[in-house]
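Troubleshooting log. The previous run stalled partway through. Resubmitting the same two chains, unchanged.
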Amino acid sequence: MRTRTRILLFAAGAAGSAALFTAGALDLPRFGGALHPYGDRAVHQALRESTTNTVSSVNFDQRAFDTIGEELILMASAIGAVVLLRVVGKEAEDQGATHRHGPAEVSDALRIVGYLLLPVTLLIGVYVVAHGAQSPGGGFQGGVILGTAIHLLYLAGDYPALQRLRPIPVFESTEALAAGVFVAMALAAAGAVPALNGAVGVEVGCALVLLIGKFFEQALLVREPPGEPS
Amino acid sequence: MSHLPYLTAGWIILIGIYGIVTSRDLIHAVVCLSITQSGTYVLLLAIGYRYGATAPVFSDRPPHGRPVTDPVVQAMTLTDIVVGATVTALLLALTVQVAKRRGTLDPGELRSLES
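Second attempt completed without errors. Output:
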């Protein structure tokens, strides 16, 4: 399709969508109004279960079935991305590509800050997961902090240490295990909010480590054209 | 203009789709998809907003003080963000594959499905 035709087609569709969306939006309750029936009931229920962070209560208690779906989407995309990247990496290795050992030049300041922040960031991640039921935070947010924390080692230029700290197979099985634990707890309606929070935290953290790890391997792959002296 | 925040969300979504339609680079298209999705965050949070309200967390204050914003749509936004992030990762992995197999990232040059 020519670019011009495509834009014309888009313009027609966008005009229609915009008209319908505007008509729908104008019928919504006023912005910032006091009418929030679902919100009020969710707050009431959360306080009855003494989960002071209402958002965690909605995610892991009142709508835990939805969170199962979300968990499985997370796992499926992580598996898909890891498999796709693994194929690319393996083919390149078969053609004689090698991996560099981390970013080339790292300044001393970045190195020191990376090493200093690593334990602090891990601690904050654990705190955010563990206190997700009471204060702002939760498994998803804390898992992201945990998953990114160990990659401060990459910023510090210590890729071999990062590889020792994150054996990929262990993280793969831990992710699957955490997802299984979450589904089992949610289906049995046995999990308290902190336990579900913890399972989600572990799963999100592992998924992130896997994804970032695979993208790093891509970034550090050195392809040498065949038959050319290096 | 009490409906302006909702219309802003619709505008962000349309701008994102416009970016995908006119994209000349798959990574750019993935970023545009993220922008489209951020329109849904704006829409959800705008629906849940309440004037004079604070965050729906009661760890350090009594339950029946100030009104709070709607926690249901906030939890949905959280779901939305997580799904968006993982889908972006998956699409970027696909982009790596496309770049390797076809040697181009321009969607206009990707004609057939066979490699």
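Takeaways: The first helix of chain B runs from residue 4 to 21. The helical segments of chain B are 4-21, 26-48, 71-102.
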